Amino acid sequence: MLVQTVAATMASLVLRLMFGRQHELASVTVPAPGGSIFQSLVLEFIITFYLMFVVMAVATDDRAVGQMAGLAVGGTIMLNALFAGPVSGASMNPARSIGPALVSNKFRALWVYIFGPFAGAAAGAWAYNLIRHTDKTLAEVTKSASQTNAS
């Protein structure tokens, strides 16, 4: 998390140096969401929930591992951005919002982009583990998936 936050901050600094204050139009989630605080919080929770659910499916379940894993994750991110982007900016990652907030020194709705994704990711992982039907433990499932990919 620290490395992502540092990288997001450095990227925001580069944009500030290149474009001055004009780049703030592209920072999406800073200084404030396009929708209301409540709408943005709920959307960040939902889209991060879906993203984590898909990541859990393709990364930990040996039944879903395959050539299309990257497409599934990328497609989920694309759809999340299309539908939630105009309202919340579709952050899905607190580091993506913390970096620009640090550079622009604007923290007005930052808590939405920290709490929403954390809660959504936790709920998505929990929900996937709840519905996954297997007699194996998580360690056994991930071990068998990594062995399948290695061969």
TrEMBL record:
<comment type="similarity">
    <text>Belongs to the MIP/aquaporin (TC 1.A.8) family.</text>
</comment>
<keyword id="KW-1133">Transmembrane helix</keyword>
<keyword id="KW-0472">Membrane</keyword>
<dbReference type="Pfam" id="PF00230">
    <property type="entry name" value="MIP"/>
</dbReference>
<keyword id="KW-0813">Transport</keyword>
<dbReference type="GO" id="GO:0015267">
    <property type="term" value="F:channel activity"/>
</dbReference>
<dbReference type="GO" id="GO:0016020">
    <property type="term" value="C:membrane"/>
</dbReference>
<dbReference type="InterPro" id="IPR023271">
    <property type="entry name" value="Aquaporin-like"/>
</dbReference>
<feature type="transmembrane region" description="Helical">
    <location>
        <begin position="110"/>
        <end position="131"/>
    </location>
</feature>
<dbReference type="InterPro" id="IPR034294">
    <property type="entry name" value="Aquaporin_transptr"/>
</dbReference>
<keyword id="KW-0677">Repeat</keyword>
<feature type="transmembrane region" description="Helical">
    <location>
        <begin position="71"/>
        <end position="90"/>
    </location>
</feature>
<keyword id="KW-0812">Transmembrane</keyword>
<protein>
    <recommendedName>
        <fullName>Aquaporin NIP1-1</fullName>
    </recommendedName>
</protein>
<feature type="transmembrane region" description="Helical">
    <location>
        <begin position="36"/>
        <end position="59"/>
    </location>
</feature>
<dbReference type="InterPro" id="IPR000425">
    <property type="entry name" value="MIP"/>
</dbReference>
